[in-house]
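Q: I have two molecules that I believe assemble together. Could you output structure tokens for the complex as a whole instead of separate predictions?
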Amino acid sequence: MGRFRSFFFLIAAAIVVVMLQRPAEAFWGFGSGGEGGTSGLDLVQGYDRNTVVTTVGRVAAAPDSSADPVTIELVAGSERFVVVLGPRWYLQDDHLDWKIGDTVTVRGSKAQGKDGRSYLLAQWISSPSGSPLVLRNETGRPAWAGGFKGGQQGAGQQQRGGTGGGRRGR
Amino acid sequence: MPRSRFTHSILWGCLLLTSLLLWFAVANYRNAEPVAQSILRGMSLSLGQAIEALAVRDPSLKALADFSSHDSAYFSLINRQGVIRFHRNPDLIGSRIEDQRYLPVAAAPVITEERIRLGTGEVVFETQQQLHLPSETMVLRLALHTWQADQIIRRARTGLMVIVVLLTVAWGFGLWVLRLQQRDLQRREEMTRHEQLVRLGELGAVLAHEVRTPLAGIKGFAQLLRERVQDARQQEYAGKIVTESERLEGLVTDLLTYTRQETMQSGSAVVLELVQDAWESFVAEAVQAGVGVQITGAIARPVACPADRLRQLLLNLFSNALQAMPDGGTVQINLSNDGEQATILISDSGPGFAEESLKRAFDPFYTTRASGSGLGLAVCHKIVAGYGGIMTVANGSSGGANVTLQLPLVKECA
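A: Yes, here they are, computed for all two components at once.
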């Protein structure tokens, strides 16, 4: 019996050693901070002006405030996006009141993750309450990186700051 | 085909198959990247042609705004002055391009391609090629998502890993089965040997009854005859009968000793005393042959082996040593102990063991002497093993034979 056990331990160890050769993001789900989890993208600080699009779609999965970063799933035509809003700590005081089926407009930098899913790193997103949630300035610098005050904008309010010191695309 | 040869053939076959599978998997993995690159290149050329056709049809480039492809991350048209004439992000149209990578393509009809990392962290396949409009020539910069094409690389990598894991499991299992098979073979050999010994034991018992008793009679009458006859020649013949009867008696005794089931009898022996006592039996013979003895070292406690068994063992070994040195020499006996075991090293200055004799020293009936029974060392080995010891034979570095006995010491009373 002992021999059987040591043999199977040996096999299990060999499998673990081989599997450990795979990139870490292939195992763990969404990582914390800007690691991007299985997507391989920089979901928190990443942005590229070359891939900026504005799209309208329906909410397919409401925001999960326990996830980090906070995301919403959106269906626009035949395409399904994971809209990345921002880090949990930054959005914890915001009222994220989207429900499944709500129609939203979102502008952001589009990217395809290593998991094959389409991501939209939101610059702003419309909200059912009427005022859009601004998360980045025009150049993509995130509000949580400092230098500009984001948040929900009232009618006629001006977005401040926006020096463009964030990560830039080529 | 012999069993070991068959096993070797199977092992070589498995090694060949393993190498073949690994070669196939590695080659597949190494080819995957060029294949993925070719797919992206082909996709880029097709999209480039479609964009050029649209741009030629509508020189204002407005029609390009409606052009979209799931495979493209973005595309832009840059004129020779570095101004972006069209971009998927309308905010960038009219601005100047920040990098100078478009210049070589603007200057000559070449196509550049590279994988670049965007600000989002995504790696895209970017190509730059000239796009000819009726009025001017521009540079088309096209970035493609690589996930779809890279599926080939991922599948090849997964295939490689699966093959490595399966081969590891198969080799582990195969070696385990081989080990079991070898143990089974060893067990069978031991059983066969045991059966042979049992048969030998039965033969020994028959000899004890059928040969020993008449042999005692022959020896007794021969001794009587030797004393009674007056003729010197007849006395000599009677003496030969006695000598040969004693030799046969010794053979029967050895055979009975070897075939007897060795049971652990309680008892202990002081080694130095027994060594000296056993050597006393050979003093006359040793002096006649010119063989000297040197006893060195000491053993602190008695060994856990009855004195009569150890004595028999030493007599056999001394007899062998003397027979190996008919023209004189030295027998060295070194005694030592390491706290748990006593070591008795008996070395002679004879010719030592032949290579074949070293391998078969403990096989019963194996002998290189014309008159030997081939049971001496076999009996010694059996006695030592029976009392939890180890017996080894070797040749000394400066010639001669070395016989080492390791026997457990009697446990110290607390």
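A: One point stands out. The helical segments of chain A are 2-19, 88-91.
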